[in-house]
């Protein structure tokens, strides 16, 4: 005891590479992605497309956003659960977050910005949009690789068109004690793929299949890529969707962002027949993601160990 090497996530390099489907480098990276996602459901991606100036602008934009009066922040509403403002009350006092639907579409970011700053805020709009675009490129590369890995090339375009992006921006206050406090409850993501980015304050922990918590320590140009329950279902359980949580210590404020690829309402998430055979019986009934999310936020959904299994397990 005491001499165990700390657990860490696999690191996969997406920097300085002009990755193109069919190139040898693409295939090597694809194999690493598949292995990491089978083993951990998560990896750290080194990705150099967010230059230091953009990193600075992103975290400045987040500070500015969360400093707005509560009344203003409450204008961030959405029909979909957990897509709008979530306040510091009552469950997790350190946490506050907001959601920007379709953050890769300039007009949508513009509309979000105008709601909060009726006089306009070009800096905020451009920063959020540019950042989302860059991250969506990484998301698309990774999802292409995943679909290829499982022999689903013919479904790639249809799959990529079946989702929208949500950018969630998060603020976690330091608890100001030596103790570690819960910043965000342990959960699995419900979407397809999540890409997380954070300021210099750590706190994210990802659970391994044998229930050990890995403390994630990303660098300035690394992004945490994670599988959500919808992709787990789409691939008939081939990839793991890991539990994760945020634990906070100290006095510093943690800011993080997550780009979530999410199945569109009305799109049925179901595993193609190619992934179903005697060895891999169908695990989940096809479902609508928005309806699944609504179930997740009911009492029964919150109580179940796996909302996905309870909702549509076979
Ligand atoms: O803040 C983080 O790093 C994690 C956030 C998260 O897990 C989520 O929003 O689903
Ligand atoms: Fe999450």
Automatic annotation (TrEMBL):
Probable 2-oxoglutarate-dependent dioxygenase that may be involved in glucosinolates biosynthesis. May play a role in the production of aliphatic glucosinolates. Residues 162-263 form the Fe2OG dioxygenase domain. PANTHER family: 2-OXOGLUTARATE (2OG) AND FE(II)-DEPENDENT OXYGENASE SUPERFAMILY PROTEIN-RELATED (PTHR47990). The keyword Phosphoprotein does not apply. GO terms for molecular function: dioxygenase activity; metal ion binding. Keywords: Dioxygenase, Iron, Metal-binding, Oxidoreductase. The lineage of its organism: Eukaryota, Viridiplantae, Streptophyta, Embryophyta, Tracheophyta. Belongs to the iron/ascorbate-dependent oxidoreductase family. This is Fe2OG dioxygenase domain-containing protein. It comes from Brassica carinata.
